[in-house]
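#struct-help
A.M.: can someone run this one for me? Single chain, 416 residues.
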Amino acid sequence: MNDPAASPTPPKRKARRVNVRTPEVMERVQAEVEEHYRSSVVEKLRSLGGLITIGNTTVRLAKQFGFCYGVERAIDLAYAARRVFADKDIYLIGEIIHNPEVNRQLREMGIMNLAGDRPDAKSTDLGADDVVIVPAFGAETELMDQLNEQGCMMVDTTCGDVMSVWKRVRQYARSGMTSIIHGKAAHEETRATASRALGEGAGHYLVILTLEDTDYLCQYIREGGDRSEFLQRFEGAYSEGFDPDSHLEKLGVANQTTMLKGETEELQRRIAKAVEDRDGVERAGENFQFFDTICGATQERQDALYEMLDRPMDLLIVVGGYNSSNTTHLVEIGQEHLPSFFVSDSDCLKSLEEILHFDLTERREKISYSKNILDPEKRIVVGVTAGASCPNNLIEATILRIFELRGIGRDRVLSA
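D.P.: on it. C-alpha cells below:
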C-alpha cells in the first residue's frame, strides 16, 4: 500500500523546442549576419559571370561556392538564439559548421561549446534554464535523449538533407537491413547518422570510407573470410554487436551528405554487384537497397568545379575549414587536374612565392613554393572556390590578396 505521506514522484522533464525565428528577431539577425559575412567583391564577380581580369591577372570564381542554405539557416538560428535568450547561457553541441571564422564569431557572442578538447561545460550539468543549439550536422541520439530528459531548451539547426539520411537508415533498421554508411567514422554527421541506424536497438551499421575498404567488404560478402581480421580492420566503424558473418545478409547504403558523389555511386555499384554475385539477381533485389543521399549543395559545388576545370588555369585556391568534408573533396577534385591549395583564409597566401596550405596526404599545414606560377611578370589565371561552410568575406579576402600580390589594389578590383 502506498504511504500517503510519501512525496509524489516529480514529473519527468522534457526538452522544450523553441522557435527563435520571429520576424522582428530575424530582421535584426539578417543585418548582423550580412555585416559579418557579406562581400561586395564576391557580388561584383557574380555580376561579371565569375571572371575578372586586371592587367595580366585573371581570377575565375566557380559558379557555385560558399554557404549553402542549410549552413545559412544554422547560422541564422544561432544568431537568433543569442538575441532571444540574451540573459541565458547558450551552449553549442560542437561546432555549428566546420569553419573557424564562423565559430569564432559565435564564441565572441558568448555561445559556449559542449565538445572539443576543452568544453565549456558538461552536458550532464545542464538543465531547464540552459539553451542548447544542435549544429547543422545533427547530434547522436544518446546525447539528444539526455538533454531532452534534462529539460533543456533546444534550438535545432540540423540540415534537412542530413535528416533525410536519418529517415533512410531508420527504414533500413526496420527492414532488418544493416546500414552501410559511406563516410568518415569520426565525423559528427556520420556519428549522428550511425546512431539512427540502430533503429529501436536492433539495427546495425558499418562505416566505409575508401573504395579499397569497399573491395575488402565485397570480397567478404562473396566469399566470407576471417571474422577477427574484418573486425580489426573496421574497428570503431561498426555498431556494438556487429558480426560480419550474420549482419551482411541484407544491406542498405547511405552516406555522409558531403562525400564525393562519384565515389559514393561507385561504392554502391560494387556492393550491389557483390550481393548479386552471392545471391543471384532476383534475391539481390530483396537484399540490397540504396538511395542518393548526397547533399544537393555539395553536388552543385563539385559540378561547378568540374565545369571550371574544363578551362585552362594555372592554379586553384580552395578556401575553407580544414575539417570540412565537402571542402576537402573539392581539393581532391582539383588536385587531379592542376596545382591546388587548400587554405583557411587569405593570410595563408604569404607572398608570391609561398602558400601555407593544408596537405591532405600529410594531414598538416605546410608551405609550398610556387614562384614560377605566381611570377608577377607572367600572365596567370587563378581559380577560386570554397566549400559550403565558407563565408563570402573569407572568399573576398582571398581574391583581394591574390590581386594584391600582383600589385593590384582593392579599388581597381571594385572598379573593374
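A.M.: thanks! The CA atoms of residues 332 and 361 lie 10 Å apart.
D.P.: also worth noting: The longest helix spans residues 261-279.
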